[in-house]
Amino acid sequence: METIKFRGLRSSFILYVLTTLVIAAILSALTIWGCAALQKKLLPDSDLVYLTIQRSDSDGNETTTTVPMPLNDVLKEIPSMISMEDTEGDILSGEQNVKYSVTKIENSFTALSPKRQLVYQASQIGMIALPVFFSLVGILLCGLLFYRKKLKIPISLLTSATKQIADQNLDFQISYPSADEMGALCASFEQMRQILKENNQKLWDMLEERRRLQGSVAHDLRNPIAIIQGYAQYLQLSFSGDKISREKVSSVIANILHTSYRLQRYTDSLRTISRLEELEVQIQPEHFASLSSDMREDLSLLTEEKQLKLDWDNTVVEKELNLDSKILYRILENLIGNAVRFANRKIKVQFSYCQGLLTTTVSDDGPGFPQKVLNSKDSYAYMGSDDENHLGMGLAICRVLCRKHGGQLTLSNSDQGGAVIKFVLLS
């Protein structure tokens, strides 16, 4: 039975049908043989005859005796008196006159008694009806057994799984250890469930990330809006009392214009992030040594402007990696651009590769991240106090790009206090 469990549906069905046919054929043969034996027993033996002996004495008294006997025995005992047709013979024995007559026993249904005729007819019906009955019952039992052994459990599992998916519940598992088609179907369904769960989790993470980003942006927008409102109220009150000079008006307008530029940069960054959500990742084989050399040559220009040292450490030994080089370049450009603003003397970039993951670390010797930024998951934008124009949206862009490439980005500080940003890309 364990072997049947791991057979395919087609071979199992054929095996069930053949087994049913063999059993039905054996039962039908036994039934027909039994009914035929019963009929033979009911009918008289075709070799039997009635031997009638009639005796009469000299006084005229007659006695008649009829005995069923095999024809061969009759032929042996009175060969001179018997013929194959109804014959009669006379033998004189003393004073008795003996007559012998032989009559064939009719071997037919009409010769049976009514009770035997009923039994005989029942046996004839049984010879036809019972094989048909065995075939029908065999087909029914074959179908029920095949359904119970091969279809019932996987269909129940798939029905339950479909209902749970319809109820938006993906926290379950389908397990049907069988090598047949239903086992493959259950395995495919389980794979689909896992993919759905992963996609739902990614969608939830994306929505949660967008919610945190919107909260962070709303918080950052509050300051420039409050500044513009404050300056506007100040101008309104000052003009009404003629208490403001032309120079002061010019200074306030310059501050309002400066703050409006900050708002414009915020909106530009938000549009950039929105476009990144729709970006299609283009994975292709890249010769990483050449790619690393090209990126170092380009990104070193950012550090040279600030007279910073760029340490570039590539420990990847694989010749080719499957990744989107544009996404990797853009992430590094944003992170090094951020590090340039806070580093004192140098910035270090390290690459490593293990089990399909490219890990990149960008660190500097600056003041590092504030502890509240490291502790808060909602901190997408980071603005240093010494760089008022920096919007800090670069980290948000890098997070989105890492997620699009199947990776993640984490923030930390080194033991010396500098900022450390590590991101992992699926490659």
List the helices and strands and how they pair.
Elements: H1 2-5, H2 9-42, E1 48-56, E2 62-70, H3 71-77, E3 87-93, E4 96-104, H4 114-166, H5 181-241, H6 246-277, E5 284-287, H7 288-305, E6 309-314, E7 320-323, H8 325-342, E8 346-354, E9 357-364, H9 371-375, H10 394-404, E10 408-413, E11 419-426
Parallel strand pairs: 6-8
Antiparallel strand pairs: 1-2, 1-4, 3-4, 5-7, 8-9, 9-11, 10-11
Helix pairs in contact: 2-4, 4-5, 5-6, 6-10, 7-8, 8-10
Description:
It is found in: Cell membrane. InterPro entries: HAMP_dom, HATPase_C_sf, HATPase_dom, His_kinase_dom, HisK_dim/P_dom, HisK_dim/P_sf, HssS/ArlS-like. It catalyses: ATP + protein L-histidine = ADP + protein N-phospho-L-histidine. This is histidine kinase. By secondary structure, the chain is an alpha+beta fold. The chain has four domains: 2-42 and 112-162, no CATH class; 48-107, no CATH class; 170-278, Orthogonal Bundle (Helix Hairpins), CATH 1.10.287.130; 282-427, Histidine kinase-like ATPase, C-terminal domain (Heat Shock Protein 90, 2-Layer Sandwich), CATH 3.30.565. It is built from ten helices and eleven strands. It has helices at 2-5, 9-42, 71-77, 114-166, 181-241, 246-277, 288-305, 325-342, 371-375, 394-404, and strands spanning 48-56, 62-70, 87-93, 96-104, 284-287, 309-314, 320-323, 346-354, 357-364, 408-413, 419-426. The two termini are 46 Å apart.
